[in-house]
Amino acid sequence: MARPDELTFAPLGGVGEIGMNLSIYGLGNRHQRSWLAVDLGVSFGDEEHLPGIDLIMPDIRFLEKERKNLVGLVLTHAHEDHFGAIIDLWPKLKCPIYATQFSASLFEAKCNSERNPPKIPVTVVPSGGRIDLGPFSVEFIPVAHSIPESHALAIHTSAGTVLHTGDWKIDPTPIIGKPTDERRLRELGDAGVLALIGDSTNAVREGRSPSEAEVAKTITELVKNAKGRVAVTTFASNVARLRAVADAAKAAGREVVVVGRAMERVVQVARETGFLDGVQNFRGADLYGHFPPDKVLAICTGSQGEPRAALSRIANDDHPQVTLNKGDCVIFSSRTIPGNEKAVGAIINGLVTQGIEVITDRTDLVHVSGHPRRDELRDMISWVRPQLLIPVHGEALHLSEHAKLARAAGVPKVLICRDGDLVRLGPGEPAIIEELPSGRLYKDGSILEESKSRAVVERKKLAFAGCVFVAVAVTEKGELADDPEVDLVGIPEKNTAGEIIDEIVFDTVVSTVEGLPRARRRDPDAMAESVRRAVRATINQHWGKKPLCYVHVLTV
């Protein structure tokens, strides 16, 4: 008798980390499976550990190999950590993409901002709609989150139904868009849910995430009481927050000026898709200086301390159109993503030093998370009543806390996995049955590099210990034809005794070459290796670090 189809799940990014989300679902047997991909996002580079790397993407080797069995890529929403890798990686997959209108429009605007915009077709699905992709029937269930048209996905298959929550929270008053569809989620629970694959971002926080409506009240009050200019920075994609800020400005008789390309792009898409209907027209940054200080409010990019974003340039007083002075006010309507604390702190300190008042969520309710806290996670479990729960979208601590909560809430089976684990969801006992190739790709300028690539590995060393370049010209007999050339980059000029390190290295090169046996002198590779070792050892002796060293031997 033929075995029934097996339903499997594998995260290729987004588990054990926050960001870079890519999940795949498989239906079939070991030899032949159809695959459905959900989201394809990025995470952001960290200058300290990955100098020069802007974006990190999931390694999609496995999906490339299975391309002919990939029925489609479905997007839960349009945050960068869920759709930011598509432009770079889609050409390797060329699969159909499905998203609701706002996500599709924002993706199109993102493509159009590229130098050579790629042609990537996206099929628009109505919110609450259902599509059939191979053996999967995918239903888009509206959920509240910090960007319009976020959806959980109910993935219906012959082996059972999976609820992939995406990013969500429970917000009965979300300002724009629909609240999380409790009724539909309860119906799914009544019909039976095999597995819940759930957002763990706030699993360590008790209670419930406050509503966007409460943030809107606070911002209205702060803007009303402000005396000078007001600047608000938030995530560009948080259209509900943009609307709340615009309403607060209107109530205080202020014009809204939009500053920053990412913000302009989202505002344009939000207007086209109806999410800013009834909101006054915004002004361009070029008109900022035309309004009296108490009649203007600037909405700026740069809430994460990005060096070229609007707020950073304003704080450094090098923005061509927008300035702030003593007595003005900046509201950070955002949370600092882990890793960005230094950059954000530098901007806040810069603003405070100039006498500008800075308001953050430390003192006022000017930001709420778009992710569920523990009571909301319990609600979701009670509505859906899954047989199995797999925590995703979180670091190890978040996953572990979500798993504990699920067990305490009576979920029969809870399984923690990591990127690359292929999990059997059913039929039969849930288990990790295989390890798929997974990893990271780095966007280095315009090139995609593997994480073990030479450029990435060497740049870390360069950042830590600098580099030495040595050029040696020798005769055919192996005698020095001229003085060696030595160039030190990123290395101190003098040692602790005040001796010049360039001169010490020069002497080392000469004495090493002259001390080599004749046979090694006639072998350029052997000479280069001897000089390289000697130079690194010498610098280590005088500095305590071993730099990279490149030696070029030229026979004349």
UniProtKB/TrEMBL annotation:
Keywords: Cytoplasm, Exonuclease, Hydrolase, Metal-binding, Nuclease, RNA-binding, Zinc. The keyword Hydrolase applies. It comes from the Bacteria. GO terms for molecular function: exonuclease activity; metal ion binding; RNA binding. Pfam families: Lactamase_B, RMMBL, RNase_J_b_CASP, RNase_J_C. InterPro entries: Metallo-B-lactamas, RibonucZ/Hydroxyglut_hydro, RMMBL, RNase_J, RNase_J_2, RNase_J_b_CASP, RNase_J_C. Residues 21-219 form the Metallo-beta-lactamase domain. NCBIfam families: MG423. PANTHER family: RIBONUCLEASE J. This is Ribonuclease J.
